[in-house]
Specification:
The structure holds two protein chains of two kinds. Chain A is mainly α. Helices cover 79% and strands 0% of the residues of chain A. Chain A contains eleven helices and no strands. In chain A, helix 3 crosses helix 4 and helix 5 packs across helix 6. The longest helix of chain A is centred in the C-terminal third of the chain and has 38 residues, at 178-215. By secondary structure, chain B is α/β, with parallel strands linked by helices. Chain B starts with 9 loop residues before the first strand and ends in a 21-residue tail after the last strand. Chain B: Belongs to the ABC transporter superfamily.
Chain lengths: 270, 261
């Protein structure tokens, strides 16, 4: 039997799925053991048990100075910035994507401009954002928008262009105006694809968020990681990294579920 | 046709169409009476589908004009022309019933009905669905239907908008032979009810003659062997296809003479 036709069974599949996670954990654990055996006060690879203890402390115990649980504050601040940035981008991308995809005049005006703007490295203009929008929340949200909006607009407008012309013409023969075509034919078919694109752009969004927080901030997940880096507090950094990974994974899962629940017709075509 | 008004319903006058320097159609003239079923056949690349797009007003001819019921030539597709393509003729994000309702509601400002209108439109849609045999799948999405059912839905949706002419672009091209035959019966019945003027592009000669009152053949009258694209196509034959292609003869005359049992 060819390799391409061999399917793992249910048990094997689950085991294979767990394997890379287990291997990574074991490799870390062994490395940590070796370093700690040589130097018990080594800070680079803290033992898993140390990380677990730190995590518990971070999630439950308030900070002695401010009397607040910092991790939750960091999470709230970061998620707020992320949701604002991604949400505004998704909204603008949908509106502009429909306009660019449907209206030849808007396409002629904006398509080239968006293509050029999307080539600007967002981090390169971060200083400009700090100067123009200050060091507050606004500049961080704007960085996320600058980072992912051009990609989302290009993607959404292409998705509109991908809708078969036959379908648009059919709507025209039913007497639909441009507005009705946009609202009843294009937009409903665009939304499930928007969710897909947002899922893809969550990675870059986190990148820009943490970059902005690392450079100038007073609270936030990225800020905390770069703050405790000075004390080589690897246990704190690793806890935050795992926490961010979990948050990102849950967001992706939530969007995937939303897409399935809200757009049953996309499932029907599978 | 038998004693109907000779006033032509659709006229195509001296139509030329070229894409850039390449002529596709030249000197196409045809007049069609209301209620006629016109089959359009021809080899690939002979401008059948281009002619249909011109009838649809999706494209405008480089020269000449097409008029429906004496109205000025259309500049874009509209309510007077219904269309069914080989694929993508229904909206995948709407249920079967919503697709039929869309045939009436898309012409409104926001594209949806509300209140009493909505209820009435749904009832009419259910009647239509019962007539085209899709009432049992009214709440399903088109992707769950077979190819034949999707095309029936597309035809039902186009007719729900009450167009003046119905344009079919190889509507049964992607269907298997059995489904195609049942679609022929379906279309014949529907036509007997509505007396709709129909233009159908098809690859299948037999289908064209079976369904059509007239069969228009598109071909290139002139052919330059060194430059096959030098000339465009036109209507080279215009067959009367009623009664299986022999419209004015009957195998058996109706003589009113008593015959032995």
């Amino acid at each position: 039997m060819r390799l391409i036709n061999r399917q793992p069974g249910v048990a094997l599949k689950a085991a294979l799925m767990a394997l890379p996670f287990v291997l990574t954990f074991v490799a870390y654990w062994i490395g940590s053991e070796i370093r700690l055996a040589e130097n018990p006060s080594d800070k680079l690879l803290p033992a898993p048990s140390t990380i677990a203890a730190t995590a518990e402390r971070l999630f439950t115990e308030p900070d002695r100075r401010s009397d607040r649980i910092l991790l939750w504050h960091d999470t709230a601040a970061s998620l707020m910035r992320l949701f604002l940035g991604v949400g505004i981008s998704a909204l603008l991308a949908t509106i502009l994507g429909v306009l660019i995809g449907l209206l030849p005049h808007v396409r002629a005006t904006l398509a080239g401009f968006v293509a050029v703007v999307s080539m600007i490295p967002p981090l390169a203009i971060l200083p400009i954002l700090f100067i123009v929008f200050g060091l507050g929340e606004l500049s961080k949200v704007v960085l996320i928008i600058v980072g992912i909006l051009p990609f989302l607009i290009r993607d959404q407008s292409q998705r509109v262009l991908d809708i078969p012309r036959e379908m648009i013409v059919k709507a025209e023969t039913l007497g639909a105006s441009s507005l009705v075509i946009a609202l009843r034919v294009v937009l409903p078919q665009l939304l499930p694809r928007l969710i897909q694109s947002v899922r893809l752009s969550l990675g870059p969004a986190w990148l820009f968020l943490i970059a902005a927080e690392a450079i100038a901030s007073e609270v936030g997940l990225g800020y905390r990681i770069f703050l405790v880096r000075r004390f080589l507090a690897m246990d704190v950094i690793l806890t935050y990294v795992l926490w961010i990974t979990l948050l990102a994974f849950l967001m992706d899962l939530a969007l995937r579920t939303l897409s399935r629940k809200a757009f049953p017709w996309t499932e029907a075509s599978l | 046709m038998d004693g109907g008004q000779p006033v032509s319903f659709v006229t195509a006058e001296n139509i030329f169409q070229s894409y850039g320097a390449r002529p596709i159609l030249e000197r196409v003239n045809v007049t069609v009476d209301e209620g006629e079923f016109i089959s359009i056949v021809g080899a690939s690349g002979c401008g059948k589908s281009t002619f249909l797009r011109l009838l649809l007003a999706q494209e405008r001819p480089t020269r000449g004009e097409i008029r429906i019921a004496g109205a000025p030539p259309a500049v874009e597709p509209g309510l007077d022309r219904g269309v069914v393509f080989q694929k993508y003729s229904v909206f995948p994000h709407m249920t079967v019933r919503e697709n039929i309702v869309a045939g009436e509601s898309f012409r409104t400002t926001w594209g949806v009905f509300s209140g009493a209108h909505k209820k009435a439109a749904r009832d009419r849609a259910d009647d239509t669905l019962a007539r085209i045999g899709l009432d049992h799948v009214a709440d399903q999405y088109p992707a769950t239907l077979s190819g034949g059912m999707q095309q029936r839905l597309a035809i039902g949706q186009a007719l729900a908008a009450k167009p003046r002419i119905l344009l079919l672009d190889e509507p049964f091209g992607a269907l298997d032979p059995g489904t195609r035959l049942s679609m022929h019966d379906f279309l014949t019945e529907l036509r007997a009810e509505t007396r709709m003027t129909v233009f159908m592009v098809t690859h299948d000669l037999e289908e064209g003659f079976k369904l059509g009152d007239r069969v228009l053949v598109f071909d290139k009258p002139r052919w330059d062997p060194t430059d096959p694209n030098a000339y465009g196509a036109t209507i080279t034959y215009d067959f009367d296809a009623r009664d299986g292609g022999i419209p004015f003869q009957r195998i058996e005359e109706d003589t009113h003479v008593l015959r032995p049992a």
